[in-house]
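Supplementary Text 2. Reproducibility record for the structural model of the 284-residue chain.

All settings were left at their defaults, and a single model was retained for analysis rather than an ensemble. We include the record here because the model underlies the residue-level annotations in Supplementary Table 4.
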Amino acid sequence: MILIADSGSTKTDWLLKQPGREAQAFRTPGLNPYFLTEKEIVKILQEQAPELIAFNQDIKEIYFFGAGCSSPDRHEIVSNALSQLFTKAYISIDSDLLGSAYATCGHEKGLCCVLGTGSNISFFDGEEIHSGKHGLGYILGDEGSGTWFGKALVTDFLYGLMPDSIYTLFNNTYQLTKEEVIKNVYQKPSGNAYLASFARFLNVIRKTEYGNTLIKKGLQEFIDTNIKSYPEYHTFKSHFVGSIAFVFTEELTALCETQDIHIGKIIKQPINDLLAFILSRDEA
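Retained model, structure tokens:
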């Protein structure tokens, strides 16, 4: 029995594959080891995924691809947590970027772009990803991500920079106060996920001048900062994974077409493609 996980800062998608049966899907909160300790990860899974843990004696392999899993010490946090719950399983921990590359590029060379709660990019050579200078997180980076858009919306609202009609709609939808925002961003955990939660408002106002301009600005910043940092970006396909890329496919495609960026796959979440890749690799 194989368990696959694709974990971001907001949510983790799990697929449990038993021989001869359809894969079972589970969802838990994000398990980013930059924001959570080993004990916190164990607690989240015990409370949020008891049905999954019930299979702990039968699961023999776990492939976990997660945001924040880019260094050995972060690998260890997740691995130790999972090994407490799934005592008979071989456990592999890798970055969400590698998982996204497997799901989109397969065995082909290409650029894999993540545009979800956070944002990142990597070059995949057909076998492994090559670390770049990106992935600076929601304070220093995350261009074009849900967090980036949420921050832009919230700050424009608090500064009174939104057009009146959009300001009123935003206020009626969220009824935010400065004190509430400060508390959630600076004092509570997962400030990035909190900010990203406001990005869905963009879909409501995407056809307005303000909304359309903001969407294009964020996506263009991702393109300029990330994709164009690779001198030969125009020679490879650029694949996109994440809710922001998926929801704003129209705007993203239009921008890329004018800048010699060749789009490959655009998928909301990589979990199904990732499972297919792992199974095909094991059969090869």
